Amino acid sequence: MGKIxxxxxxxxxxxxxxxxxxxxxxxxxxVRLQSLASTERVGIVTDRHVARxxxxxxxxxxxxxxxxxxxxxxxxxxxxxxxxxxxxxxDVLARERFERKSLLMALGGGVVGDMTxxxxxxxxxxxxxxxxxxxxxxxxxxxxxxxxxVDHRLGKNLIGAFxxxxxxxxxxxxxxxxxxxxxIAGLAEVIKYGIIADKRFFVYLERTMPAILKxxxxxxxxxxxxxxxxxxxxxxxxxxxxxxxxxxxxxHTIGHALEALGGYQSLIHGEAVGIGLVLExxxxxxxxxxxxxxxxxxRSVVRAAGLSxxxxxxxxxxxxxxxxxxxxxxxGKVVGVWPNAIGRVRIVPIERGTFAEWFKTVSxxxxxxxxxxxxxxx
Length: 378
Known about the structure:
The protein is an alpha/beta fold. The chain folds into two domains: 6-177, Rossmann fold (3-Layer(aba) Sandwich); 180-359, Dehydroquinate synthase-like, alpha domain (Up-down Bundle). It has 13 helices and eleven strands. It has a four-stranded parallel sheet, sandwiched between helices. Helix 4 links the parallel strand 5 (103-108) and strand 6 (129-133). The two termini are 26 Å apart.
């Protein structure tokens, strides 16, 4: 099949699957779907932005492979990640008489992937689906691991299910048509992996960020592959987030709160996580879990990626209240992930008093957006 591909296995016994990473993989989607599908009917779920770039080519490939593709084009953006949008997917599946063996393909970013996976999880109590992530956040994070779902007005991803894909197919060439703002935002998830699990990878990011920002192919392939390897290892050890998998939430406790406070419009996910990486490291320092040097290194690499490190809400009560709606809250306590050092973290609840003491020391400023504010697209 042409250019050399990289594979990362997600080992989950009967639910195991491969992540395939290959530039130009989009040209093989019809053949790959044919090898995986049990029926001719396949659903292609995407959004308007991605459809404009890629849908006609994918539909054509499916037809050439003898499949019967059904396109489901959704409105873009986190604000549309709702039960109402999932219902639109289910309406098409029912109208087109999809069966339990019919296959869905998520062609898009994390929002499309999460909603497609959730629809696949609940339609006829579960049908197979594959992930074809087109954004960096989706390629290195949300497409892997089987978390699916939608947002509630009180919090992000409060409604969902675990439903593993049959495969994850990553074409790094998708990133070339990604708006700069989306590309930069995705780097927050990449940086997260170095902090939580791999000191050497973090050092690589410190040294290579200029090449990464220029989308140099070898650097892009390296960060995508290593991020997927770390995610796969964590998921294999803890599929349903009962223990170790919670380390993947580093940066997300404050990050999700900031997303919610902005109505899922002022900050996109990676931008909010980037702020969360720095603030949660500083909060770890405040609690005595790590030293200032660790915080400074995290802040430096976040800034080098072009991401903001500034708190976007001046209100303690608003931020703390938004954190209370996080799905990781246990018995009313906010459970945080705190760096001990680069490559090591701990999972410990935090009290409101401790958070309030730290909050007084934090400066607030700016919109929190990265310096790249290009029009959002794919």
